């Protein structure tokens, strides 16, 4: 893979560029870089396109395709796809296409928010641990190991018996079980950064430790963080689906794809395929897209790092 | 306080289980589907040597084998198991008549009431214990003595009722026990709701205070009876020894326990010395635990079960069930079903105190539409009051037969009491005060009609009905914020007794997961309203006297007393009524003699035979 | 090696304490007090007092933790009041069955994943590599319960090929008495685990293919098939061992769902029913046992790895 196709840290982090470069030129350069990347990472590009389309579908779709996702319609339950309901209706008469959009909103929101939360915690934890080093590092990493040892779903089962699941609580809980890998990776990055010349220079110039962490350690680990949080979005969406299946998801009429799928599976023998496949495929496609994107981005980074 | 005769039913499956009353405390075991499954994987071909496996209810596994049931252990899973080994004095309900005493399954001849219904005499049939000794009056008085000394530990205890309402019990000859009562009681009530809970226990084997100790007559003193109970209860809790403990091998029922595993699997084998009329025809009876109705249904359709049930979500799949080699058999419980309102909630207590608000809450529940759309037109029946709709009894007042569903009426009620209903969102009190056209005591101006409603998680059917309820309620300006929790969480949080004040909840729905199962075809209100820990309704004096009347009325006035009670309750709608579901059992075509007894839906596997 | 062992075991010990601390803290998050949550809302004050005394809950929190450890060390994991059995018994009954399920799942995941990963490494960036990558991502992206239900629908109900559920076996022996009933749960779990193995194997093999010894061997004229199948495979297998330790928590998460779908009487089902019935002692006991098992599992994987690859001892 050529150098040109790889994202450079400044492309990703938005680190300061020459102030004299006109905005238009910069934008054009960025577009060119992205364009090259897309051509060489077809799977990742496809993932990105799918994510954009799904987001549009979920958030812009309801503005065009209006459905009532609040009131049940017991006279129109379990209808197969038709002109009025392109994907049919569910067991209380909600239009499934409209519900896919609603469900997509909360699935994506939960996924993104949980991943964001996890990245924040994981980044700070890992950066501090790796940068400070010594016994602090050892202690902080043992905390990560300890939390890692308990399966996330078991932890969620336990927490589910203590808290009533609502969307904000689910985000927090999912975030709390997903920050561990980010923390490990960022710690690894910051460990190696500590020895770099410019960080040492900053230190000897009298920069304070928190400042070094924020200005140098975190930006340089940003690639890792972005890749890992992309994975975490996918994981959070999958975990949310499992939680809904185990009866620990948010209550209706709030919709999410996992709840739609497990609700549809209640009727697997009735042949209501339209209650199962759209929601199921939505999950698979979304998770797939995020994974492929993350994998491609990581691939570019690894190529770059290998070169350095 | 009256007895807690309520029974938990799991949402996971319909109840094919026996009529065992389960107190709130016993919430853990929610077994409702005691479907049996003659495991086809064992390929039973002849009755002799055949193994019949039955699907247990989704969440309940037995945890105490001793038939003197404590409140904490009063689960259907326990009582259903115990009944196979130690039958109750009377089993009420036959396949044809829900009100009749079931002769072959009862240990005694029908009770004889005398002295103006203040005295009952019970004569035992000639049964034998498996150790060879005869079942005698002593075994009944043994139970009564244990009960007298440990009444607060008994699941069916209610202050004022048995044993308090029985002045004395004496053996008359070897086989007759005479109960003298403290006043005249309605014989139907006393037989169905009191005598039917007595379990004769083998005094010659169990009247001891320790495993090594000798059998004596310890039950005759209060201290001794307490020690005996403690000993038996501790032994009964020790699930690891069920198959080996000699205590549990002395039975008068058709079965003995062979194996019990910690995940709830039970195997019973015939009691070879069984002296009843209906000898077991199969070699082994197994109860298999299932975690979810989905898993159970998969196993059923996969042909792995002999008797199971069709989950409420899958009622449309009758043909598929038949195609898999089963015949669907419906069984109903004598039960009603409602959402509980929290009268002691600081937030919504003043709201639900108002009759017009309770009426409005009932007006927006569309039971007929829910049955036809969500339950595919079957699977449940409407329930608008405290007398079970099915099976038919002479006790229901005419007023209970009409559906209250009317959103316009709910709106009118609220508007006429000073509420403003916006086009979207919660109604708001604009005329506070206690006048006839005002919101009512404790409701401030600007108070909104918003409730949190928690229901049992995991049931597609229940989720759908609650979504529909929320949707219809919103059209009358009533906002219901739904949340779902596992059955036991709801039960744990909802508790109205003074020891556990729980102001957090507002409206709670055990759903199909919870209903009043009267365990008797005589559905008196004591079981529901008095001293129950889940229903928070502050019982007025009027209701109390109406309930007492149903327990003490002479036979000729039974229906009148029940109807008067029913009418009062419906006029006051203390709770929100909802659909009561029934169980669609699936019985393998290879099996015959499988009957689900009314009242309880229980099966007695001694009747089973392989075709 | 000794120094490495001491350091690594020391770490594991600290982590075990950490796990126990997490579980201990969750105990204190239970609604009300631990005694109320565990004994139920109806418990008498007397029972609560006795419970607090037995568990040291009437003492300062530090002492409570010490008491908790005393109990752990004596094998006392608490008592399930819902099942009237010690938690230790429940776990001892069900853990081996989950170990069997997870073990078989891993076995088949490796059996399938290693050749595919190796093949992909050799065919890196060709069409079949992309295709297999996409396929393994699809496997990874399937919600486990959906996959399980699809298999049941297809192979147990529509066509009676395999049973839809597991027999209610008390022991591993009884599970093995009906091997066909293991097919669907193991298959589901393998599909979930295989993508990880494939990805790991692919990148390990790619790294190895770039190593000098491959070039040397190629230069010496060794057949490529032999180089890949003997050298690259052997050297790439090593890091894959560590995958077991790394993914164990995730796999156990998956097994909770799989056991629920297939009614398989293992730890996952035990945990799920415990959550449903608010059986806190069982949940907490399960969490600590699984936590410690994971720590020990990854310790073993690391040690094994260090034995076969001495470089590891230095870098860690």
List keywords for this structure.
heterotrimer, A: 308 residues, mainly alpha, 14 helices, disordered N terminus, B: 611 residues, alpha+beta, D-Maltodextrin-Binding Protein, domain 2, Dipeptide-binding Protein, domain 1, Dipeptide-binding Protein, domain 3, 3 domains, 4-stranded mixed β-sheet, 25 strands, globular
- Sheet with the most strands, sense and barrel status of chain C: 2 strands, antiparallel
Our measurement of the CA-to-CA distance between the termini of chain C, rounded to an integer number of angstroms, reads 12 Å
Extended strand count of chain B: 25
User: Proportion of β residues of chain B?
Assistant: 15-25%
Structural class of the secondary structure composition of chain C?
mainly alpha
CATH architecture label of the largest domain in chain B: Roll
Q: State mean pLDDT of chain B (0 to 100 scale).
A: 82
Give me the oligomer status: heterotrimer
Percentage of residues in helical conformation of chain C: over 70%
| Strand residue content of chain C | under 5%
Show unreliable segments of chain C: none
Verbal overview:
The complex is a heterotrimer of chains A (308), B (611) and C (316). Chain A has 308 residues and is mainly α. Chain A has helices at 9-13, 23-40, 42-59, 61-64, 96-132, 134-149, 152-162, 167-178, 180-194, 197-204, 209-220, 222-245, 257-265, 277-307. Chain A is globular. Mean pLDDT of chain A is 81; it is low at 1-20. Chain B is of the alpha+beta class and 611 residues long. Chain B folds into three domains: 8-86 and 253-332 and 583-610, Periplasmic binding protein-like II (D-Maltodextrin-Binding Protein, domain 2); 103-223, Alpha-Beta Complex (Dipeptide-binding Protein, domain 1), CATH 3.90.76; 335-581, Dipeptide-binding Protein, domain 3, CATH 3.10.105. In chain B, 24% of the residues lie in helices and 17% in strands. Chain B is globular, with a radius of gyration of 24 Å. The model of chain B is unreliable at 1-45 and 496-500 (pLDDT under 50). Chain C is mainly α and 316 residues long. Chain C is built from 14 helices and two strands, in the order ααααββαααααααααα. In chain C, strands 1-2 form a two-stranded antiparallel ribbon. In chain C, strand 1 and strand 2 form a beta hairpin. In chain C, helix 5 (87-122) packs antiparallel against helix 11, helix 5 crosses helix 13 (280-308) and helix 6 crosses helix 9. The radius of gyration of chain C is 23 Å and the shape is globular.
